[in-house]
Every structure is written in structure tokens, then in C-alpha cells.
Specification:
By secondary structure, this protein is of the alpha+beta class. The protein has helices at about 15-25, 30-45, 50-65, 75-115, 120-130, 155-170, 190-205, 220-240, 255-260, 260-270, 285-295, 300-305, 310-325, 330-345; strands at about 140-145, 175-180, 180-185, 210, 245. The radius of gyration is 33 Å and the shape is elongated.
């Protein structure tokens, strides 16, 4: 839009102010400045560009300066123009800052409702279109967690968002933050977007962990996928998983194991309870079993992971066999022991006694 397309309403009183101020060789009064600021706010709210608005002011100045009422002093005219245009731009920028704050507030409220399902799903779907999401389709959510907490506008989320935009353009993807974590909401059939987000977020968070929920349909699907991703992060922390990128679909066995909490607690106590009476408690021996199972029951690899000699590791495994009556090297006993170890991690035992 050019300056000639700007309605004259936004220059109302401008020529009169120039005439009065330049003729008297004075600066603009408080009322005159405030009238310019008010018009600047109105022009910003109407969506006109600042460049075109300034051009319209300069055109009006030129018309006044070459007209019959032109001032005697060009210097006094330029001084008045500078004050008037500066006040107009100040009002324009003030309106823009307010609009940005309102947009940020609306975005944050939408994200909170989207990830917690606290709004009517129909209304939520309507609001989502404003942010480029079509909630009638399936969506998946990826969550990245680093050592620190992240907020909107921080370097890490900005870097990830810019990388996604540069790679995929407009793919109906939302990148945001929630509770200090980076969050990406993407269409459920676009695994490449989520994989790319995971790689970028892992780098931006300096080695943080990323979890990806399963694609879920409908407006409520985002909440389900988000909660699955959070659950995967919690599982990784409890089980000490070293995998940088976790998929909820690969971890479905763990919620199944803990669905009957009492049964799992009974298994843990009956299987691993005898280890509590050892010097140092049960934790070192549970850690030994975890390393042993995680390395495919290869004693040499488990010993290296624990910084032990193979002989020391073998001694620990023999001790576990004697105390519990189950042999970690016996395939018939191994599943029971490994399930009990997983249950102990998930239930924070023995740190949290049942």
C-alpha cells in the first residue's frame, strides 16, 4: 500500500499543527503530540504500514510547504514535522506492542487449553485454526527436556522453530514451551517433522532427552499424545534409560506392568525384598541386575558399565542368587527378576518403602 492509499483521517489536523507551530517557531503542545499518538494507534489497529503512513505525512508536508501558507522558516517547519511524525510513530509502535502482548496471551491460553484439554473441544478446534492447526486430523506431540527450563522467546525454542520453518516451511506445525520443556505439535502422519524436531531439540538443549507420543485423532488427541510423551520422559528418568529419543509406542509394556500397582509391589517385595538386609542395602544389587539385563546378560559389558571387575560382578550375581533363590543366569528365573527390577524402578523402591 502506497502513501496515496492512506485515508486522510489519519492526517487530521496535521496541516494546522504545522502552520501554528512553524509560524510561531515553537514546539508542539502536549495536546498536539497526544493527538498524533492517538492517530498512530488507530492507524496501527487498522493495519496500515508505518512506511506508507510516514510517506503520507511527508507528502502532506510537501504540499503544505509549497502552498500559499508556507512558513517563513524551513527550519521551524522541519522541527514541527519531526515532532509530529515522531509522536505518530510512537503511538503506532505502542499499539503494535499491545497487539503483540495480546497475541502472546491468546497463544499461551490456547496452548494451555490444548495441552490440558480444559476447553470445549469444538471451540478449541476453531481457535486452533488461527495457529495453523486442524484438530480434526490426528496429531502427535514431541516433548524435549533439558537441564534448564525454557520459555517462549528463549534461544533454544527460537532456534528449533527457525530450523523447522527453514526445512519444512508451512507444515501446520506448532513449536512452543510448556512447564520449562520444548513442545512440538505436528500432524500425525508427518514422522519426518517430529524426527527433525527431536534432532534439533536434542542439540538445542545440549543433550536433552526427547519423547514422542503416538498420533491420536481429534481435538482431544493432542492431550493424549502430550501425556504419553510426558509419561515416556518420566519412565526414562525412573528406569535410567540412556536413549536420547524415546517413542511412547515402544514403551507400552511399562504402563501395562504398573497397571496393577499392588501386584507389582508384591512381586518386588517377594523377589527383591531379601536384598534389603545386605550391607549397603538393596540399591547396589538392583543396579547390578539392571546393568546385567541392559547389556544382554553379558557379564563383561555389565562389569565395565559398573566399573567393576568381572569377578566382582559375578560375586554379586551369586549373592543375589543365594539371597533371593532366583538365578539371574537362568532363563526361567531371568524374566521374574528383570520384571521385578523394572517394577522397583517404576515404584521408586527401595527409596520409597511400600
Amino acid at each position: 500500500m502506497g502513501s496515496h492509499d492512506i485515508p486522510g483521517d489519519y492526517l487530521d489536523g496535521y496541516a494546522r499543527i504545522l502552520a501554528d507551530a512553524s509560524a510561531a517557531g515553537r514546539g508542539l503542545t502536549r495536546e498536539e503530540l497526544e493527538s498524533r499518538r492517538a492517530l498512530g494507534e488507530l492507524a496501527a489497529d487498522a493495519g496500515f504500514g508505518l512506511r506508507a503512513l510516514v510517506g503520507a505525512h511527508l507528502a502532506a508536508t510537501r504540499a503544505y510547504g509549497t502552498g500559499p501558507a508556507a512558513p517563513v522558516s524551513a527550519e521551524s517547519l522541519l522541527a514541527a514535522v519531526e515532532q509530529a511524525v515522531d509522536a505518530f510513530a510512537e503511538g503506532y509502535e505502542r499499539a503494535q506492542r499491545l497487539a503483540i502482548r495480546q497475541e502472546e496471551t491468546a497463544r499461551r491460553e490456547f496452548i494451555d487449553d490444548l495441552l490440558h484439554g480444559r476447553s470445549d473441544l469444538g471451540l478449541l478446534a476453531e481457535r486452533a485454526e488461527r495457529f495453523g492447526l486442524r484438530l480434526s486430523f490426528a496429531h502427535a506431540v514431541a516433548v524435549a527436556q533439558g537441564e534448564g527450563a525454557y520459555e517462549e522467546g528463549d534461544r533454544a525454542p527460537r532456534a528449533v522453530e527457525q530450523a523447522l520453518a527453514g526445512r519444512f516451511g508451512d507444515r501446520s506445525v506448532l513449536v512452543t514451551t510448556k512447564d520449562g520443556r520444548l513442545v512440538c505439535v505436528a500432524p500425525g502422519d508427518q514422522d519426518d517433522v517430529l524426527d527433525f524436531f527431536a534432532a534439533q531439540a536434542h542439540t538445542a538443549t545440549e543433550g536433552g532427552r526427547v519423547a514422542i507420543g503416538r498420533p491420536q485423532p481429534g481435538p482431544g488427541g493432542v492431550v493424549q499424545s502430550y501425556e504419553e510423551a510426558l509419561g515416556a520422559l518420566d519412565l526414562a528418568a525412573r528406569l535410567g534409560l540412556a536413549t536420547p529419543v524415546l517413542r511412547a509406542a515402544d514403551l507400552l509394556v511399562y504402563p501395562v506392568l504398573t497397571r496393577d500397582r499392588q501386584a507389582m509391589a508384591d512381586l518386588v517385595l517377594n523377589t527383591l525384598g531379601p536384598l534389603r538386609g545386605t550391607r549397603g542395602g538393596a540399591e547396589p544389587l538392583i543396579e547390578t541386575l539392571s546393568a546385567y539385563f541392559d547389556t544382554g546378560c553379558v557379564a563383561a559389558q555389565a562389569a565395565r558399565r559398573l566399573n567393576l571387575s568381572v569377578r566382582a560382578l559375578t560375586y554379586r550375581l551369586d549373592r543375589i542368587h543365594r539371597l533371593t533363590g532366583t538365578n539371574p543366569a537362568d532363563p526361567l528365573h531371568r524374566y521374574t527378576l528383570q520384571t521385578a527390577v523394572i517394577g522397583a524402578r517404576l515404584l521408586d523402591w527401595p527409596e520409597r518403602p511400600f
